[in-house]
Amino acid sequence: MTHGPIDDDGSGTRRYDEGPGRRPYDDASARRARGADTSDRRPYAEDGTASRPGGEDGRAPRPDAEGAAVRRPIGEPVRPVRSHPVEPTWTRPPDPDQVDPGVLGALLRRHGWQRRGGATGRYGRWTPPGPAGRGMSLLVPENRAFPDSDDLLGEALTALSRSGSPAARDVLVALTVPSDEIHWWRDVPTGPLGTASWGVEDQLRSAARQMLLAAALATRARAGYYGARHRLPAAACLDGVLVGAAPGGRHLTAFVPVAGGRPLALRLHQALYAAREAIDYQRATGGMEAFDGAVEAGVSHELTEALVALVRGTEGARVAVDWAPAAGVPEGGTAPAEPVEFSPGDLPVLREAGARYLREEPSIPVRITGAVVRMRRSAGRGEGTVRLRVLAGAEVPHVRMTLDEESYRIAGQAHLVGLPVRVRGRLESRGGFRRLTDADGIAPVQVDEAERDRLMKSLQETAEITAFFEEACGGD
């Protein structure tokens, strides 16, 4: 810490003049030497009794008074602390009363379980896939027509919950949260004992997420290239998706809840088939026209990039969508939905289609309302660059634009007083719809006080700027 010189005013008091932002050194003697009033620092009242930090009656301030510290009496027990809210955990199997025997049987078959006998029309005996299931079997009733159906269901669910098999876990997840299942397979070499390298596992997860995000974007709007448009709401669609991975980095399953997530699964299902048909058409005829019509089904630059990421470095890849048995097949879906296969030979076509979507997506005229969040120019005068946080007019979070000197001044004044601005221009597809060109007609937008305070946040308003800007706006 750097201190200024010691000032001796003859009173014996040494005062330190510290740097800006620091509270100067002070005590009672120094204050008396400067002639300051020290009555508020008396430790005792005039009658000699100790003063208290309360009112004139000596009582302590109420705990609920503003600025008062809350103190617990010594003899009072500690009150229980409210626990932090957490997401519910699934530690027990589903309630047998809530499980449809037909749905359980369909899920067992989907996840590779084999039916090996059982009384026809009454129950079936199921064994899990692979060598890990030796010695284990489930008795699953086919319906609830018999008195012991609930007991058999309870025993089967308990056995599934105690099993370490991924096939058992996936069945329980699908029962707990009725979900459409999306499966990805990649034909890649595995490591020792079925392990996978970090990169292989990461490639599978990354490609799967890209594909889900592309499908979520297609549920918002149809476009050959989205860029930054619709990104935030599309990413929010993935929050409820559950993931179950198989060892080896070759297989991944996403459980998309039917409630709220079915449009995503249906759009991906349709887009995959449309992409496969467009690839086959191009490889047969050499034309790319089929990709134009595939946009309506959900194919886009983002989806082709996801498919390239999935197939690259493999001998082939497959994607399948299985509908939740409890909800049935949606309108526009097919059952059974066969896996859609892609091979390394499809990569050149996918890359060409992605570049074509990127190149041909047009810029769009917009009228944006936004809050100025950043300004920059190389000199004290002239044009400058402004960044807006978009409030309305475009499905992107931020845009940048270059303004002339007068428009830059208006944007700066709006920024200082916490008002948004409205501007016209063209949202350029090049760069992901993040830049506004031909910006024109910038003007402040009057908002109510609550919104204005929220936009200002920590900005400090001066009376001179307020008077100037309100006169320019014609407001009161």
Automatic annotation (TrEMBL):
Compositional bias (Basic and acidic residues): 11-45, 54-65
Annotated stretches, region: Disordered: 1-101
The protein's name: Uncharacterized protein
Lineage: Bacteria, Bacillati, Actinomycetota, Actinomycetes, Kitasatosporales
